[in-house]
Amino acid sequence: MWDGLRSRGRGRLRVGRWRPRWRRSTPRASRRRASGSGFSRAKNLPRSEGGPIVSYLATPFRPAGEPGQGRPLRRAVTRRAPEGRRSHRPLFLSAAVLLAAVVVFYLVLYVLPATLASGSGSEFASSEGEARSALLQASGGLLLAVGLYLTWATLRLNRQGQVTERFTRAIDQLGNERTDVRIGGIYALERIAFDSRGHHSAIVEVLATFVREHSHRRASTASRGDDSPSGPSSGPAVRVDVQAALTVLGRRRRVFDAPGSRIDLTGVRLQHARLEAADLESAMLRDADLSHADLRGARLGHADLTRSLLVGAVLRGADVSDAILLGTDLRGAVMGEALLNGATLVTARLDGASLKGAFADGRTSWPRGFDPDDELVVIESPRPGEG
Protein backbone atom coordinates (compact mmCIF):
# COMPACT_ATOMS: atom_id res chain seq x y z
CA MET A 1 0.00 0.00 0.00
CA TRP A 2 2.84 2.35 0.83
CA ASP A 3 4.34 1.87 -2.64
CA GLY A 4 1.04 2.90 -4.10
CA LEU A 5 0.94 5.98 -1.91
CA ARG A 6 4.49 6.96 -2.87
CA SER A 7 3.77 6.55 -6.56
CA ARG A 8 0.80 8.91 -6.25
CA GLY A 9 2.53 12.07 -5.23
CA ARG A 10 4.86 11.47 -2.32
CA GLY A 11 2.60 9.64 0.08
CA ARG A 12 -0.73 11.38 -0.47
CA LEU A 13 -3.75 10.35 -2.50
CA ARG A 14 -4.97 13.02 -4.82
CA VAL A 15 -8.62 11.94 -4.91
CA GLY A 16 -10.73 14.99 -4.08
CA ARG A 17 -9.83 16.40 -0.66
CA TRP A 18 -9.63 13.06 1.13
CA ARG A 19 -6.47 12.27 3.07
CA PRO A 20 -5.54 9.11 4.99
CA ARG A 21 -6.54 9.03 8.62
CA TRP A 22 -3.00 8.66 9.82
CA ARG A 23 -2.06 11.93 8.15
CA ARG A 24 -4.86 13.76 9.93
CA SER A 25 -3.96 12.28 13.33
CA THR A 26 -0.18 12.68 13.10
CA PRO A 27 1.61 15.92 13.91
CA ARG A 28 2.86 17.86 10.93
CA ALA A 29 6.54 17.27 11.71
CA SER A 30 6.00 13.52 11.93
CA ARG A 31 4.07 13.50 8.67
CA ARG A 32 6.84 15.40 6.97
CA ARG A 33 9.46 12.85 8.08
CA ALA A 34 7.29 9.87 7.12
CA SER A 35 6.21 11.31 3.78
CA GLY A 36 7.72 10.47 0.45
CA SER A 37 9.84 13.62 0.49
CA GLY A 38 11.49 12.48 3.70
CA PHE A 39 12.35 9.13 2.17
CA SER A 40 13.72 10.79 -0.92
CA ARG A 41 15.96 12.97 1.16
CA ALA A 42 17.19 9.95 3.09
CA LYS A 43 18.04 8.21 -0.15
CA ASN A 44 19.76 11.08 -1.89
CA LEU A 45 21.79 12.54 0.94
CA PRO A 46 25.46 12.52 -0.02
CA ARG A 47 28.26 10.86 1.88
CA SER A 48 30.16 13.88 3.07
CA GLU A 49 32.34 14.86 5.97
CA GLY A 50 31.43 13.63 9.42
CA GLY A 51 30.92 9.98 8.55
CA PRO A 52 28.48 8.03 6.45
CA ILE A 53 24.78 8.75 6.35
CA VAL A 54 22.71 6.21 8.28
CA SER A 55 19.08 5.88 7.18
CA TYR A 56 16.40 3.81 8.88
CA LEU A 57 13.42 3.14 6.62
CA ALA A 58 10.68 0.88 7.94
CA THR A 59 6.95 0.23 7.60
CA PRO A 60 5.33 3.68 7.33
CA PHE A 61 2.32 3.05 9.60
CA ARG A 62 0.94 0.45 11.96
CA PRO A 63 -1.57 -2.06 10.58
CA ALA A 64 -5.19 -1.81 11.54
CA GLY A 65 -6.25 -3.47 14.78
CA GLU A 66 -3.18 -2.51 16.76
CA PRO A 67 -2.96 0.28 19.31
CA GLY A 68 -2.10 3.53 17.63
CA GLN A 69 -3.14 2.34 14.21
CA GLY A 70 -2.52 4.77 11.41
CA ARG A 71 0.51 6.22 13.14
CA PRO A 72 3.97 5.73 11.70
CA LEU A 73 5.62 2.56 12.95
CA ARG A 74 9.04 4.16 12.69
CA ARG A 75 9.95 7.52 11.36
CA ALA A 76 12.44 7.97 8.57
CA VAL A 77 15.40 8.91 10.70
CA THR A 78 18.43 10.39 9.06
CA ARG A 79 21.54 11.01 11.08
CA ARG A 80 25.28 10.93 10.82
CA ALA A 81 27.45 8.34 12.44
CA PRO A 82 29.32 9.98 15.31
CA GLU A 83 32.88 10.91 14.48
CA GLY A 84 34.25 9.81 17.83
CA ARG A 85 33.40 6.18 17.17
CA ARG A 86 36.35 5.86 14.84
CA SER A 87 38.87 6.96 17.46
CA HIS A 88 38.08 4.30 20.05
CA ARG A 89 40.86 1.99 19.01
CA PRO A 90 43.64 4.60 19.27
CA LEU A 91 42.19 5.58 22.65
CA PHE A 92 42.42 2.01 23.88
CA LEU A 93 46.00 1.74 22.64
CA SER A 94 46.96 4.95 24.39
CA ALA A 95 45.37 3.72 27.60
CA ALA A 96 47.25 0.41 27.31
CA VAL A 97 50.58 2.20 26.79
CA LEU A 98 49.89 4.49 29.74
CA LEU A 99 48.99 1.54 31.95
CA ALA A 100 52.17 -0.29 30.93
CA ALA A 101 54.24 2.82 31.71
CA VAL A 102 52.64 3.07 35.18
CA VAL A 103 53.38 -0.60 35.88
CA VAL A 104 57.01 -0.25 34.79
CA PHE A 105 57.39 2.92 36.87
CA TYR A 106 56.01 1.16 39.92
CA LEU A 107 58.33 -1.82 39.45
CA VAL A 108 61.38 0.39 39.01
CA LEU A 109 60.65 2.61 42.02
CA TYR A 110 59.33 0.13 44.54
CA VAL A 111 59.44 -3.57 43.66
CA LEU A 112 62.85 -4.05 42.05
CA PRO A 113 64.86 -1.84 44.46
CA ALA A 114 63.50 -3.76 47.46
CA THR A 115 64.30 -7.06 45.72
CA LEU A 116 67.86 -6.08 44.82
CA ALA A 117 68.69 -4.40 48.16
CA SER A 118 70.56 -6.28 50.86
CA GLY A 119 71.41 -5.78 54.50
CA SER A 120 69.19 -4.50 57.30
CA GLY A 121 68.18 -1.19 58.77
CA SER A 122 70.00 1.83 57.45
CA GLU A 123 72.19 -0.37 55.29
CA PHE A 124 69.11 -1.81 53.57
CA ALA A 125 67.69 1.68 52.98
CA SER A 126 70.98 2.87 51.50
CA SER A 127 71.23 -0.22 49.29
CA GLU A 128 67.64 0.23 48.16
CA GLY A 129 68.31 3.87 47.24
CA GLU A 130 71.38 2.92 45.23
CA ALA A 131 69.46 0.21 43.42
CA ARG A 132 66.63 2.63 42.70
CA SER A 133 69.07 5.21 41.30
CA ALA A 134 70.76 2.61 39.10
CA LEU A 135 67.40 1.38 37.78
CA LEU A 136 66.25 4.91 37.06
CA GLN A 137 69.42 5.66 35.13
CA ALA A 138 69.09 2.43 33.17
CA SER A 139 65.44 3.20 32.41
CA GLY A 140 66.34 6.72 31.29
CA GLY A 141 69.03 5.38 28.97
CA LEU A 142 66.64 2.82 27.56
CA LEU A 143 63.98 5.45 26.94
CA LEU A 144 66.56 7.67 25.26
CA ALA A 145 67.64 4.83 22.98
CA VAL A 146 64.04 4.03 22.11
CA GLY A 147 63.35 7.68 21.38
CA LEU A 148 66.39 7.94 19.13
CA TYR A 149 65.37 4.80 17.26
CA LEU A 150 61.82 6.04 16.76
CA THR A 151 63.13 9.39 15.54
CA TRP A 152 65.46 7.67 13.08
CA ALA A 153 62.68 5.38 11.86
CA THR A 154 60.35 8.36 11.38
CA LEU A 155 62.97 10.31 9.43
CA ARG A 156 63.68 7.27 7.29
CA LEU A 157 60.01 6.75 6.46
CA ASN A 158 59.61 10.43 5.64
CA ARG A 159 62.64 10.33 3.37
CA GLN A 160 61.38 7.22 1.59
CA GLY A 161 58.04 8.90 1.06
CA GLN A 162 59.70 11.99 -0.37
CA VAL A 163 61.88 9.90 -2.71
CA THR A 164 58.87 7.94 -3.91
CA GLU A 165 56.97 11.15 -4.54
CA ARG A 166 59.90 12.59 -6.50
CA PHE A 167 60.18 9.37 -8.51
CA THR A 168 56.48 9.43 -9.41
CA ARG A 169 56.63 13.10 -10.42
CA ALA A 170 59.70 12.49 -12.61
CA ILE A 171 58.01 9.55 -14.35
CA ASP A 172 55.03 11.79 -15.10
CA GLN A 173 57.38 14.36 -16.64
CA LEU A 174 58.73 11.78 -19.09
CA GLY A 175 55.31 11.60 -20.73
CA ASN A 176 54.95 15.35 -21.10
CA GLU A 177 54.64 16.81 -24.59
CA ARG A 178 57.23 19.54 -23.93
CA THR A 179 60.85 18.59 -24.54
CA ASP A 180 62.24 20.70 -21.71
CA VAL A 181 59.89 19.05 -19.21
CA ARG A 182 60.97 15.57 -20.35
CA ILE A 183 64.65 16.54 -20.01
CA GLY A 184 63.97 17.84 -16.50
CA GLY A 185 62.34 14.52 -15.61
CA ILE A 186 65.36 12.59 -16.93
CA TYR A 187 67.85 14.53 -14.82
CA ALA A 188 65.51 14.31 -11.82
CA LEU A 189 65.61 10.52 -12.18
CA GLU A 190 69.41 10.67 -12.28
CA ARG A 191 69.45 12.57 -9.00
CA ILE A 192 67.06 10.08 -7.41
CA ALA A 193 69.28 7.20 -8.56
CA PHE A 194 72.23 8.84 -6.78
CA ASP A 195 70.22 9.49 -3.60
CA SER A 196 68.35 6.18 -3.37
CA ARG A 197 70.09 2.95 -4.22
CA GLY A 198 66.78 1.09 -4.06
CA HIS A 199 65.48 3.05 -7.05
CA HIS A 200 68.66 2.72 -9.13
CA SER A 201 67.77 -0.42 -11.11
CA ALA A 202 64.21 0.77 -11.78
CA ILE A 203 65.47 4.12 -13.06
CA VAL A 204 67.99 2.42 -15.38
CA GLU A 205 65.21 0.26 -16.83
CA VAL A 206 62.90 3.25 -17.24
CA LEU A 207 65.53 5.29 -19.09
CA ALA A 208 66.53 2.34 -21.29
CA THR A 209 62.88 1.85 -22.21
CA PHE A 210 62.56 5.57 -22.94
CA VAL A 211 65.53 5.39 -25.33
CA ARG A 212 64.16 2.30 -27.10
CA GLU A 213 60.72 3.83 -27.56
CA HIS A 214 61.81 7.32 -28.60
CA SER A 215 65.03 6.76 -30.54
CA HIS A 216 63.01 5.97 -33.69
CA ARG A 217 61.37 9.40 -33.59
CA ARG A 218 63.56 12.10 -35.04
CA ALA A 219 63.60 15.81 -34.42
CA SER A 220 62.32 17.48 -37.57
CA THR A 221 64.78 20.39 -37.44
CA ALA A 222 67.66 18.72 -35.60
CA SER A 223 71.17 19.31 -36.84
CA ARG A 224 74.70 18.85 -35.65
CA GLY A 225 77.66 21.17 -35.76
CA ASP A 226 80.91 20.78 -37.64
CA ASP A 227 82.70 19.65 -34.46
CA SER A 228 81.36 16.11 -34.92
CA PRO A 229 84.15 13.51 -35.01
CA SER A 230 83.11 12.47 -38.50
CA GLY A 231 82.50 15.98 -39.77
CA PRO A 232 79.24 17.68 -40.61
CA SER A 233 76.18 15.48 -40.31
CA SER A 234 74.44 14.20 -43.39
CA GLY A 235 71.69 12.38 -41.48
CA PRO A 236 69.19 12.97 -38.71
CA ALA A 237 70.46 13.67 -35.22
CA VAL A 238 69.34 12.07 -31.99
CA ARG A 239 66.58 13.91 -30.16
CA VAL A 240 67.84 16.01 -27.28
CA ASP A 241 65.76 14.18 -24.69
CA VAL A 242 67.00 10.79 -25.95
CA GLN A 243 70.57 12.13 -25.84
CA ALA A 244 70.01 13.25 -22.25
CA ALA A 245 68.79 9.76 -21.30
CA LEU A 246 71.87 8.22 -22.97
CA THR A 247 74.14 10.58 -21.06
CA VAL A 248 72.54 9.62 -17.75
CA LEU A 249 72.80 5.90 -18.56
CA GLY A 250 76.42 6.28 -19.60
CA ARG A 251 77.54 7.92 -16.35
CA ARG A 252 75.43 5.95 -13.87
CA ARG A 253 76.99 4.25 -10.84
CA ARG A 254 77.43 0.75 -12.20
CA VAL A 255 78.26 -0.58 -8.72
CA PHE A 256 74.58 -0.07 -7.88
CA ASP A 257 73.40 -2.26 -10.77
CA ALA A 258 71.67 -5.48 -9.82
CA PRO A 259 73.91 -8.55 -10.22
CA GLY A 260 73.67 -9.90 -13.74
CA SER A 261 71.62 -6.95 -15.02
CA ARG A 262 72.25 -5.59 -18.53
CA ILE A 263 71.06 -2.40 -20.16
CA ASP A 264 68.69 -3.38 -22.94
CA LEU A 265 69.13 -1.07 -25.95
CA THR A 266 68.15 -3.61 -28.58
CA GLY A 267 67.18 -2.11 -31.92
CA VAL A 268 67.80 1.53 -30.99
CA ARG A 269 68.47 4.13 -33.70
CA LEU A 270 71.25 6.34 -32.42
CA GLN A 271 72.96 7.73 -35.48
CA HIS A 272 75.41 10.52 -34.60
CA ALA A 273 74.82 9.96 -30.88
CA ARG A 274 77.37 11.37 -28.45
CA LEU A 275 78.52 8.59 -26.14
CA GLU A 276 82.02 9.70 -25.17
CA ALA A 277 83.32 7.65 -22.23
CA ALA A 278 79.87 6.09 -21.78
CA ASP A 279 79.78 3.06 -19.50
CA LEU A 280 77.83 0.48 -21.52
CA GLU A 281 79.51 -2.59 -20.09
CA SER A 282 77.59 -5.79 -20.99
CA ALA A 283 74.87 -3.76 -22.73
CA MET A 284 72.46 -5.41 -25.17
CA LEU A 285 72.93 -3.53 -28.46
CA ARG A 286 71.69 -6.11 -30.94
CA ASP A 287 70.48 -4.67 -34.26
CA ALA A 288 71.30 -1.17 -33.01
CA ASP A 289 72.14 1.62 -35.44
CA LEU A 290 75.15 3.55 -34.11
CA SER A 291 76.35 4.89 -37.44
CA HIS A 292 78.70 7.88 -37.08
CA ALA A 293 78.27 7.76 -33.30
CA ASP A 294 80.97 9.20 -31.07
CA LEU A 295 82.11 6.32 -28.85
CA ARG A 296 85.56 7.60 -27.93
CA GLY A 297 86.70 6.02 -24.67
CA ALA A 298 83.40 4.17 -24.27
CA ARG A 299 83.29 0.98 -22.22
CA LEU A 300 81.69 -1.75 -24.32
CA GLY A 301 83.30 -4.80 -22.75
CA HIS A 302 81.15 -7.96 -22.94
CA ALA A 303 78.54 -5.98 -24.88
CA ASP A 304 76.41 -7.76 -27.48
CA LEU A 305 76.69 -5.82 -30.75
CA THR A 306 75.41 -8.56 -33.04
CA ARG A 307 74.19 -7.23 -36.42
CA SER A 308 74.57 -3.63 -35.25
CA LEU A 309 75.59 -0.79 -37.54
CA LEU A 310 78.76 1.12 -36.63
CA VAL A 311 79.46 2.62 -40.04
CA GLY A 312 81.78 5.59 -39.63
CA ALA A 313 81.61 5.37 -35.83
CA VAL A 314 84.53 6.67 -33.78
CA LEU A 315 85.78 4.03 -31.32
CA ARG A 316 89.19 5.53 -30.58
CA GLY A 317 90.37 4.33 -27.18
CA ALA A 318 87.14 2.39 -26.56
CA ASP A 319 87.15 -0.83 -24.54
CA VAL A 320 85.54 -3.53 -26.70
CA SER A 321 87.18 -6.48 -24.99
CA ASP A 322 85.20 -9.75 -25.02
CA ALA A 323 82.42 -8.03 -26.97
CA ILE A 324 80.33 -9.93 -29.52
CA LEU A 325 80.44 -8.30 -32.96
CA LEU A 326 78.98 -11.04 -35.17
CA GLY A 327 77.68 -9.50 -38.37
CA THR A 328 78.53 -6.02 -37.14
CA ASP A 329 79.07 -3.43 -39.87
CA LEU A 330 82.26 -1.49 -39.01
CA ARG A 331 82.98 -0.05 -42.44
CA GLY A 332 84.85 3.21 -42.14
CA ALA A 333 84.98 3.02 -38.36
CA VAL A 334 87.90 4.63 -36.53
CA MET A 335 89.21 2.12 -33.96
CA GLY A 336 92.71 3.38 -33.21
CA GLU A 337 93.96 2.48 -29.71
CA ALA A 338 90.78 0.50 -29.09
CA LEU A 339 91.04 -2.53 -26.82
CA LEU A 340 89.90 -5.65 -28.73
CA ASN A 341 91.16 -8.41 -26.44
CA GLY A 342 88.87 -11.42 -26.73
CA ALA A 343 86.47 -9.64 -29.11
CA THR A 344 84.53 -11.80 -31.58
CA LEU A 345 84.85 -10.31 -35.07
CA VAL A 346 84.45 -13.46 -37.16
CA THR A 347 81.68 -12.19 -39.43
CA ALA A 348 82.18 -8.44 -38.92
CA ARG A 349 82.66 -6.12 -41.89
CA LEU A 350 85.89 -4.13 -41.54
CA ASP A 351 86.14 -2.63 -45.03
CA GLY A 352 87.82 0.74 -44.75
CA ALA A 353 88.01 0.56 -40.96
CA SER A 354 91.07 2.12 -39.32
CA LEU A 355 92.60 -0.16 -36.66
CA LYS A 356 96.03 1.43 -36.47
CA GLY A 357 97.31 1.16 -32.90
CA ALA A 358 94.41 -1.02 -31.71
CA PHE A 359 95.24 -3.66 -29.09
CA ALA A 360 94.33 -7.34 -29.42
CA ASP A 361 95.46 -10.71 -28.11
CA GLY A 362 95.37 -14.34 -29.10
CA ARG A 363 91.73 -14.67 -28.09
CA THR A 364 90.57 -12.07 -30.62
CA SER A 365 88.83 -13.75 -33.57
CA TRP A 366 89.14 -11.93 -36.93
CA PRO A 367 87.16 -12.24 -40.14
CA ARG A 368 88.44 -14.70 -42.74
CA GLY A 369 91.18 -13.15 -44.85
CA PHE A 370 91.81 -10.26 -42.47
CA ASP A 371 95.46 -9.78 -41.41
CA PRO A 372 95.78 -7.63 -38.25
CA ASP A 373 99.50 -7.09 -38.94
CA ASP A 374 98.66 -5.30 -42.17
CA GLU A 375 96.39 -2.96 -40.22
CA LEU A 376 99.15 -2.29 -37.66
CA VAL A 377 97.19 -3.90 -34.83
CA VAL A 378 99.27 -4.45 -31.70
CA ILE A 379 98.99 -8.11 -30.69
CA GLU A 380 99.55 -9.50 -27.19
CA SER A 381 100.05 -6.07 -25.68
CA PRO A 382 98.94 -5.06 -22.21
CA ARG A 383 95.95 -2.87 -21.75
CA PRO A 384 96.63 0.84 -22.25
CA GLY A 385 97.73 2.40 -18.97
CA GLU A 386 98.87 -0.87 -17.44
CA GLY A 387 102.54 -1.56 -16.82
Give a structural overview.
With 387 residues, this protein is mainly alpha-helical. It has a domain of 80 residues. Helix content is 39%, strand content 3%. The strands form two sheets. It has a two-stranded antiparallel ribbon with strand order 1-2. Helix 7 runs antiparallel to helix 8. The N terminus is likely disordered.
Task: List strands and helices in order, with pairings.
Blueprint: H1 2-7, H2 21-25, H3 28-34, H4 36-44, E1 53-56, E2 77-80, H5 88-116, H6 122-174, H7 179-195, H8 200-214, H9 240-250, E3 359-360, E4 378-379
Parallel strand pairs: 3-4
Antiparallel strand pairs: 1-2
Provide the descriptors you would attach to this structure in a database record.
387 residues, mainly alpha, two-stranded antiparallel ribbon, 9 helices, 4 strands
Quick overview of this protein structure:
By secondary structure, the protein is mostly helical. It contains 9 helices and 4 strands, in the order H-H-H-H-E-E-H-H-H-H-H-E-E.
